[in-house]
Amino acid sequence: MTARSRPPALQCSSRLSLPDNAVALWTLRDDLIEPMCSALAYTLSRDERARARTYRQERHRRRFIARRSVLRWLIGGYLSCKPESLRFSVGAFGKPILLWPRAAGFAFNLSHTEGLTLFAFAWACYLGVDVERRIDGMDINGLGSGIFSAIETARLDAAQPDPLATLLGIWTRKEALLKALGTGLSGDPTAWVTEDGPCPGNGRWRASRNGIPISGWTCLDLVLGQDIRGALAVSHEGVRVMVHRCQMTNELASLCH
């Protein structure tokens, strides 16, 4: 992953900056779900609270509350507004859409797996991220059917000695790309091909549709922790990637009381 790390902190929501031609990635570990939920649950809208109540298990409910409220806190920081003032809608494929404030060109995306949530923010682009945790011993037979292209399927079939690593690489790339394009897994995902870039092993990959490469994009593999793989797709060339870790600050800790 080509990235520039910054001091880990979930800063005050009025002190975040997002340069042009840059992507800000934020990671939220599951061990911070409880304190973040306690500190920021007040920012949720009425419909988000209603949605939270639909989760039968308390841990799933608190994870939803924490992820959505952290998303609000971060967007509020980048757009200089109170996180509780944000208004969202839901797109055709379940992707949240910011209705207010109307910030032309502001892009965001998120993904989560067991142990980690990943948030991404940028300006004036198409943006998608995906993150998946490796589960050793998982039966991968048939996974990717109807989603992977013939080229990707052949690469998975030939993968040795670790086909699971190849599967996660293809899967996260394809998910990140399709989320950036706004289609999700609808349409014909097999028409898209993801593959290593000209210099295999440097974390960069490329994509094409029906044999026609897409240009002007930055596509990166992400290593986000032990056994956690991710991918980023953004329609800017040569972007700077800034990685942050969400942590409790004094300001957030005071909100827990």
Summary tags:
28% helix; Ribosomal Protein L22, Chain A; 257 residues; 2 domains; alpha+beta; disordered N terminus; 13 strands
Tell me about this structure.
There is one protein chain. The protein has 257 residues and is an alpha+beta fold. The protein has 2 domains: 144 residues, 4'-phosphopantetheinyl transferase domain (Ribosomal Protein L22, Chain A), CATH 3.90.470.20; 107 residues, Ribosomal Protein L22, Chain A. The strands form 4 sheets. The chain has a 5-stranded mixed sheet, with helices on one face. Strands 7-12-11 form a 3-stranded antiparallel sheet, covered by helices on one side. α1 packs across α3, α2 runs antiparallel to α3 and α4 runs antiparallel to α5. The longest helix has 22 residues. The N and C termini lie far apart (38 Å).
Question: In a nutshell, what does this entry contain?
Answer:
With 257 residues, this protein is of the alpha+beta class.
Number of distinct beta strands: 13
Biggest sheet layout: 5 strands, mixed
Which topology of the largest domain does CATH recognise? Ribosomal Protein L22, Chain A
Derived from helix and strand composition plus strand pairing, the structural class reads: alpha+beta
> What is the CATH class designation of the largest domain?
Alpha Beta
Strand content: 25-35%
**Helix proportion of residues, in percent?**
25-40%
Question: Would you identify the CATH architecture of the largest domain?
Answer: Alpha-Beta Complex
| Count of the domains | 2
State the separation between the terminal residues, measured CA to CA.
38 Å
Q: How many distinct helices?
A: 6
- Poorly predicted segments: 1-9
Order of helices and strands: EEHHHEEEEEHHEEEEEEH
The CATH superfamily of the largest domain is: 4'-phosphopantetheinyl transferase domain
Main-sheet strand order equals 1-13-2-6-5
- Approximate shape: globular
Q: If you average the pLDDT, what whole number results?
A: 90
The value of Rg in angstroms is: 18 Å
